[in-house]
Amino acid sequence: MSNLSLDHHRIRKDTPLFARSVYLDAAAAAPPPLPVVEGIASYLKDLSRLGPYLPSFRAKTYEQVEEVRSKAAALIGARPHEVAFTSNGTEGLNLVANGLDWQEGDEVVLLDVEFHSNVVPWLRLERERGVKVRTVTTDGEGMTTAEAVLAAVGPRTRLVTISHVLNALGTVQPVEEIGQALKQIQPQVLYLVNAAQSLGLLPLHVDRLHCDFLAAPGRKWLRGPEGSGILYVREDHLEEIRPTLVGWGGTEWQPAARTLRHPATAKRFQAGLPNIPAILGLGLAVDYANQLGVAATAAQTGALVQQMDDLLRRIPGLAVYGPVQPEHRAGIISFNVTGVDPKRLVTVLAEQGVIIEAGTFMAEVALAKYGQSVVARVSPHYYNTEQDLVRMADLTETAARGAES
Ligand SMILES: Cc1ncc(COP(=O)(O)O)c(C=O)c1O
């Protein structure tokens, strides 16, 4: 069934966890494959073997960091100087929110189903800087349209931000259509795409998105290490974003002239020493993703989600939430079973070596569309097999039948 260019046997062997457990929580974080882990370990060993500041080692390390920047940029169709390394997705969103020169009365447009980290930076601007946050109401599946977003854009709108894929429902927003329509009709409005749940899962290209900014962590679908992430800033906006942190890494300071300058590259956001192990791991995760091909990954994961959906819907008393049409959903399925506490289900499955998650997913508005506040969530990735899904569904069915009797 695999369209992937690496064989499934090799993919499974690259992650020792899969010999023991069924892992179905990529939406939280996916286990990094061995090449990522070993690359980081090898760098750390070299640190203690050679010394961080052995000149040749240091020079090579910085070269590698720049190679990773180029690879990460290429993955999203950007140029290296437009990509900054961050520690997570939230940091990138904050760098944009806190870096723009807001005027009282400026407006930000976002969706009612936005994830917490893409709401609070804007709400804080509302509280502290007189910025107005306009919220677009999505449909019953948490989906919006370019028309709905444009209808919320007014003369004072400075920025529109959209999460590509919803973390609780898997809803895929029409981010390319929104970007295209926005730039056609209101080219001065900035567009920030939150790719937290799509980097490594769906093909991304900043030109096709027509976005000015894109933020994402590396640890989810890309399978990079915790503590890795990227922020893309389109070249012509680099100088509009004032670095939140300043220091030796991203600021030129000439004491005699008392001048302070930030380079017109994304390095302006790198105030001090970057998280080199995480960055090197991110680069190896990009290599791994490229070996498979992100388009093939999207197709494979789409097929697995569909299979998972079919299996879950057969279970008595189980309701699946999120888009019905497969093309409107990516990677994530949420559900509940009558009479079964979703958190208890997580524990029961974990005891059997099946890892899923349950919670509010900080997505109260999205879940309220289905009358839910807490749900169970599965997020299969290309490394899962049909047997993984059947095992998860069988255990869930046993829990459902237990609740019935
Ligand atoms: C949709 C969405 N946006 C943003 C984030 C924040 O990412 P991070 O935890 O890397 O800051 C997440 C994390 O779960 C997410 O799911």
Give a verbal description of the structure:
The structure is a single chain. This protein has 13 helices and 15 strands. It is α/β, with parallel strands linked by helices and 405 residues long. Strand 6, helix 8 and strand 7 (213-217) form a beta-alpha-beta unit. The chain binds pyridoxal-5'-phosphate. Residues 88-90, 115, 117-118, 163, 167, 194, 196-197, 217, 229 line the site of pyridoxal-5'-phosphate.
Report the portion of residues in β strands.
15-25%
Biggest sheet record: 7 strands, mixed
Separation of termini? 37 Å
Please compute the radius of gyration using only Cα atoms.
22 Å
Order of helices and strands: HEHHEHEHEHEHEHEEEEHHEEHEEHEH
Query: Which stretches are low in confidence, meaning pLDDT under 50 for 5 or more residues running?
Result: none
Provide a compact summary of the structure.
Helices cover about 40% and strands about 15% of the residues. The chain is of the alpha/beta class and about 400 residues long.
List keywords for this structure.
405 residues, alpha/beta, Aspartate Aminotransferase, domain 2, 15% strand, binds pyridoxal-5'-phosphate
Question: What is the topology?
Answer:
Layout: H1 8-13, E1 22-23, H2 34-50, H3 55-75, E2 83-86, H4 89-99, E3 107-111, H5 120-129, E4 132-136, H6 146-152, E5 157-163, H7 175-185, E6 190-194, H8 206-209, E7 213-217, E8 229-233, E9 252-254, E10 259-261, H9 276-292, H10 294-313, E11 318-321, E12 333-337, H11 342-351, E13 354-355, E14 357-359, H12 364-368, E15 375-378, H13 386-404
Parallel strand pairs: 1-13, 3-4, 3-5, 5-6, 6-7
Antiparallel strand pairs: 2-8, 7-8, 9-10, 11-12, 12-15, 14-15
Helix pairs in contact: 2-9, 3-9, 6-7, 10-13
The chain binds pyridoxal-5'-phosphate (PLP).
